[in-house]
Design a protein that fits this description.
Two copies of one chain form a homodimer. Chain A is of the alpha/beta class. Chain A contains 14 helices and twelve strands. In chain A, helix 1 runs parallel beside helix 2 and helix 7 packs across helix 11.
C-alpha cells in the first residue's frame, strides 16, 4: 500500500515531477531530490511536494534521473535506505542492472526496474503533468530475486498514476524497446539528417509522408544518446539488419530487380499490420476509416466533431492531411467497424462531403 | 484556355478519375480511356465523363496510367493525335522522358511532364475525388523544347483543379521526390518489415513513434515498386547514403562512441527543422503548440474544436497521441504564435486542462 508511505523522487525533470504531481493529487506523501537546486525549486512549486531531508527514511524511491547516473544512485540508496523499495523510470534496463552485479541478493530483492512509456517533446519540471501516464504502458522488470511485495508496490505506483503495468524480463524489455522505440528513433534521425543540406526547392515538395516518418527526429539529442548508448548492443544489431536490407534494396534498384523491391514493400505492409490498434491489430479487432473533405472556413473541424459526438460515435483516431506546410481539408476518422455507417449517415445529413 | 477543348484522360484509376471529375465539375469536356472496360465503366459513372471514341480528335491528353506504360502511350498519342498537348501524372520523370529520345523536337514541343502530388491510401475510380488536388503541389517539368503554350495549358489544368503549379526540370523533379517521397517510402517499409516476425509481446509496447515512422509502409506495393524502379538510380544513391550512415551508428553504438550517436541525433533535429510548415519552416514563420488533456468522455474533442472556433483561432495542425493501440486524451494543437495566448485563455475559461 502506498498510502502512508514516504515516497522519494530523485531527479525532478519532466518524468520525475509528473510522477510527484500525480501522487500528490492522490493524497500521497512525496519528497523530492535533484542535483540542480533551481530545477528542484521549480519541481516543488509545480508538484506541491517538498524537498527531501536526507536524514529522513524512505519507503519507496523512484529514480527519474538521466539513465547514465541511475546505477550509481541505486547503489547510494541501497546503502543509505536499508528498507526502501527502489525503482527507476529508464528506457533501458540491462545496462543499468548488469552494473549492479555486486549488490547482494537481499538488497536486490528490493529492486524493481520500471519504464513508464510516456513523454513529451518538451522537457523540465515546468512541463510536468500529473496525468502524463494515464493509459500508458508502465513496464515492470524484476530481477531474478526481487520480492513479490516490491513488485506489487511498483505495480500500485503505476496503477495509481493511471498507467497499465506490463511485466517483462530485463532482456525482453530491452529487446522490445529496441524494436518499437530505439531503432525507429535512429532511422528517423538518419532519414531527417538527409534533409539538412538539401536544396530548398527540393524540400519544398515535402508532403505528409516524410513529415510523419521524421516526426520523432525532433527528439532531445542529449537524452536520446544516453538511452541509445544504454541499449547499445540490441539496437546496433537491429540497426545493422535495417542497413543491410537498405543496401539490398539499393542493389536491387541498380540491377532493375523490381521483384525484390516489391517484396520489401509487401513485407512492410505485413509489418505495419502487426501494430496494435488500427487496421486489425491486437487491441481493436476492426477499425473502419471515414474520409471527410472539409470546406476551408473556420469552425468546420469543430462542426465535424460535434456531429460525430451527437451521433454517439467514438473516434478511435483522427488524422489530418498536410501539404505545402499547411493543413488541407482532408480529415481521416477511424471508428469501430460497426459505427461506420452511423457516422457516414450523420455526416451526410449534416452536409459534409464524405469521400468514398 | 481549357474551355471548349477536348480533354482525354488515359487510365482511369484514382488519379485519372479524380482529374476527370474535377474538370467536369468546372464544365469542361472530358473523355476517358482505360484498358479495363469495368474500371472504365466505374470511372464514367463516377465522373460524368464519357468514353473516348478513338477516331475523335483530342486537344489535351492526360496520361494517368501506371508509370511502366506511360512512355508507350505517349508515343502512340504523338502518332495518332498530331495536334494534342500531352502530359502525364507520374511520380517519376527522367526514366519516362529518356525513353522518348527518338521523338522529334517538333513533337517534343507538345510534351509536358506533370506530377500532381496527391493521393490516397485507397485506389481505383470508386475512390476518386474531384477536389483531390486542392492546395497540392502539381510539379510541371518541361522538356528542353516544350513550347510555352503547352506549359501554360498544363499550368491551367493544375490551377483549374485547385493545385499549385511548381516548375522543376526533369532532373530536379526526380532528385526532389527521391528525397522527400521515394527514399522515405523505402526506409519506412524496411523499418516496418522488422516488425513482421517480432514477438507479439514486443510489438505490444509500440507507441506513437513507430506508428508515425511506419505509416506509409501501408502503401500499395505494386504501384510503388513501379515508381521506385522508375527513379532507381537517384533513389539507390540516397538509400545507400542512409544505409552507410546506419552502419556508422551501429558501429558507434558497439564502440561506445556516444558523441557520434549524439551528432546523428543533432543532425536529425536540423533536417527535420527544414520541413515547410510547422516549427519555423518555409511557409509559416512561427507556429506555437498548445497541449490539451481531454477527459475520457464523449464529445470532449468536439467541445475542444468548438472553443477554438469561437475564439476565432485557426488551427494549423492537430495531432492526437496514441498508446496501447488507443487514442489517449492528449491533443496537440498548432496555431500561429500570435494566436496562442487567445486560444489558451479560451480553453481555460472553458475548463480544459491546458498542459504547460
Amino acid at each position: 500500500m502506498l498510502q502512508g508511505k514516504n515516497i522519494l523522487v530523485v531527479g525532478t525533470g519532466l518524468i520525475g515531477t509528473s510522477i510527484a504531481q500525480g501522487l500528490i493529487n492522490h493524497g500521497l506523501h512525496v519528497v523530492l531530490s535533484d542535483v540542480d537546486p533551481q530545477i528542484l525549486g521549480t519541481a516543488i512549486t509545480k508538484s506541491g511536494a517538498r524537498a527531501w531531508d536526507s536524514s529522513e527514511n524512505i519507503d519507496l524511491a523512484i529514480i527519474a534521473t538521466p539513465p547514465a547516473v541511475v546505477a550509481r544512485i541505486i547503489k547510494e540508496l541501497i546503502a543509505s535506505q536499508p528498507h526502501a523499495v527502489i525503482t527507476d523510470v529508464s528506457s533501458v534496463k540491462g545496462s543499468i542492472f548488469n552494473s549492479l552485479h555486486d549488490v547482494s541478493d537481499s538488497d536486490k530483492s528490493r529492486l524493481v526496474g520500471g519504464h513508464p512509456m510516456a513523454g513529451r517533446e518538451v522537457k523540465g519540471p515546468e512541463s510536468a503533468l500529473g496525468d502524463l501516464f494515464v493509459d500508458r504502458p508502465w513496464v515492470i522488470s524484476a530481477t531474478e530475486v526481487t520480492s513479490q511485495s516490491a513488485i506489487d508496490l511498483v505495480r500500485e505506483l503505476a496503477t495509481t498514476l493511471g498507467a497499465v503495468p506490463i511485466e517483462r524480463s530485463l532482456i525482453e524489455h530491452d529487446r522490445a524497446v529496441a524494436l518499437v522505440s530505439h531503432t525507429p528513433q535512429i532511422v528517423s534521425s538518419v532519414l531527417a539528417g538527409q534533409l539538412r543540406d538539401a536544396n530548398e526547392s527540393d524540400v519544398e515538395l515535402a508532403g505528409q509522408g516524410i513529415r510523419d516518418t521524421t516526426r520523432i527526429a525532433s527528439s532531445d539529442p542529449e537524452l536520446w544518446s544516453q538511452i541509445l548508448s544504454g541499449n547499445a548492443l540490441e539496437v546496433a544489431e537491429q540497426v545493422t539488419l535495417i542497413a543491410n536490407r537498405l543496401h539490398g534494396v539499393a542493389d536491387a534498384l541498380r540491377d532493375g530487380d523490381s521483384a525484390f523491391v516489391r517484396e520489401v514493400l509487401v513485407q512492410g505492409n505485413a509489418g505495419r499490420d502487426r501494430l496494435p490498434g488500427k487496421h486489425g491489430g491486437a487491441v481493436r479487432i476492426s477499425v473502419a476509416t471515414v474520409m471527410v473533405r472539409l470546406d476551408d472556413k473556420p469552425g468546420e473541424l469543430a462542426r465535424l466533431f460535434a456531429v460525430a459526438a451527437s451521433a454517439n460515435v467514438n473516434l478511435e483516431d483522427v488524422r489530418i492531411d498536410h501539404s505545402l506546410g499547411r493543413m488541407t481539408g482532408l480529415v481521416e476518422l477511424a471508428v469501430a467497424m460497426d459505427a461506420q455507417s452511423v457516422l457516414v449517415k450523420a455526416l451526410i445529413s449534416a452536409e459534409f462531403v464524405v469521400v468514398r
